[in-house]
Amino acid sequence: MPTLHWIGKDKVVKHHHEVPFKTLRWEYVHTAPEGTPANSTGNRIIHGDNLEALKALLPEFEGRVNCIYIDPPYNTGNEGWVYNDNVNDPRIQKWLHQVVGKEGEDLSRHHKWLCMMYPRLKLLYRLLAADGVIFVSIDDIESTYLKIVMDEIYGSSKFIGQFIWKSRQNKDNRTTNGASIDHEYVICYGNSIRGDERNKEQYNNPDNDPRGPWTSGNMVCLADELARPNLHYELIDPTTEINYGKPKQGWRFDRARMARLIDENKILWPDKPTGRPRLKTFLAEMNSDFTGYPSLIGQNLFTYHGTREIDEIFGKRQFDFPKSSGFIAELIQQGAYKKDSIVLDSFAGSGTTAHAVLKLNAQDGGNRRFILTEMMEYAETITAERVRRVMAGYGEDNKAVAGLGGGFEYYTIGEALFDEDGNLNESVPVEEIRRYVAYTEGIDYAGTIQHPAFLGASSDAAYFFHYEPDRATTLDFDYLSSLTFSDGKPATLVIYADNCLLSDEQLKKYAIIFKKIPRDITRF
Question: Do 404 and 28 form a contact (C-beta atoms < 8 A)?
């Protein structure tokens, strides 16, 4: 498989491992006003660098996100946008200098963009469920590079499609080369998407066929006789003996298959030789209620719809060139068709993805949840504020839009779990440290149900985290005798502590695996 190389790639390929794990700091919870409809409430909006935010989400959400949609900077070089769109934001520049070093000073805009995107796509990959899908909006500037990088990270076999969205309703007469670029792309990876809902209205049963409603389909092929000679033959109605000849492009089926269809009474025969026989396709024989999702998407949903939507929500222009909630809802419906799906957007912008999730839930009674991350300062004043207004309702008089209901929790990026010396940061809440350690052990965090230090259990082991911020802890016989087990003593005990007074022989005798704090806490 072809791979893409750029200056700085060697610095960022494994950078997601080097990003310090930080906790999420809970700031507040918002619930829609009383009287609004029921909608999902387990939603999150996170203000902070999305690289840190995505890593902080791993303990709870790794492999659990059903649908990811991101609309990253397109790298247009237009610095007039509210979201600085050519990756020259001071924070990105600082990050590039820290990660790539002096080499980063010579990077072209494409190199910078790839350096910024790669570790974020890697973390998104870890968060995506095994049957999940990711959609990435992009335009011609970086689409080629993005496709190759996505192949590398997600696997070329997981490529679903590069969809085309006609984003501009009218031609751009400002063009300098004669071409009006009226489209963008949405690149999609995963196992499969839902597809379009089958139009069942086209099925009926005018002849009272006992097999139920049916529709007629074309039986003419698109291959000439040289290419597919087995599809070129004369077709004769066995009852009327009318000969319908052979079409220039042949039939869809060979003689044997056509004979079976005739025996099954699935051919509609015209009463004139000039007519064209058609195939009866029965609704009951369809394997799915869905057909293919077309590669041309977002029909009659243009950029101006998103701009108008923002204007109506805020009463003034607050964000340039947002996608419309209808367009994002169309994509989410493909990836989050399960009504309890988790939807993630790590370039949240004005919060369109949250709006789309709430809208879909209101339409089909779903309980989809959204997670948004936004690094810019408008995370509270625009992103979260938009969601609040959508939940409560907005507009006045004949332009009033009813609230969709729901709620969300707002977070910022908290402290790093480890300090610069590699020790546990004493300012981090103990509960957050415990959750992290349980995650690194691959177990579901159970809290302190059985014992103050109990983390959780696997099929053959119980895990204990003996830690106190203000003093060193010790694994000895006194501590060992304090452990309790609700389901009997497991085969193995995994115990974290600062020190251990048991010998190797004693640890082996009692089937104990000792892990020293902080040395043996896994970094990821």
Answer: no
Give the integer Cα–Cα distance in Å for 323 and 321: 7
**Residue in the structure block whose two tokens are 């006609």:** 166
| Whole-Å CA distances, 147 to 136, 255, 284 | 10, 43, 39
Pairing of strands 65-70, 342-345: parallel
For the chain, what is the mean pLDDT? 90
Strand-strand pairing, 407-416 and 43-47: parallel
Contacts of 398 (CB under 8 A, 6+ apart): none
CATH for 9-197+291-416 is: 3.40.50.150
Buried b (16+ CB within 10 A) or exposed e, 464-494: bbbbeeeeebebeeebeeebeeeeeebeebb
**Rounded-to-integer distance, Cα 112 and Cα 101, Å:** 12
Residue 102 predicted with pLDDT over 70: no
Q: Say whether 512 sits in a helix, a strand or coil.
A: strand
* DSSP class per residue in 348-359: -TTTHHHHHHHH
Residue extents of the structural domains in the chain:
9-197+291-416, 199-287, 430-516
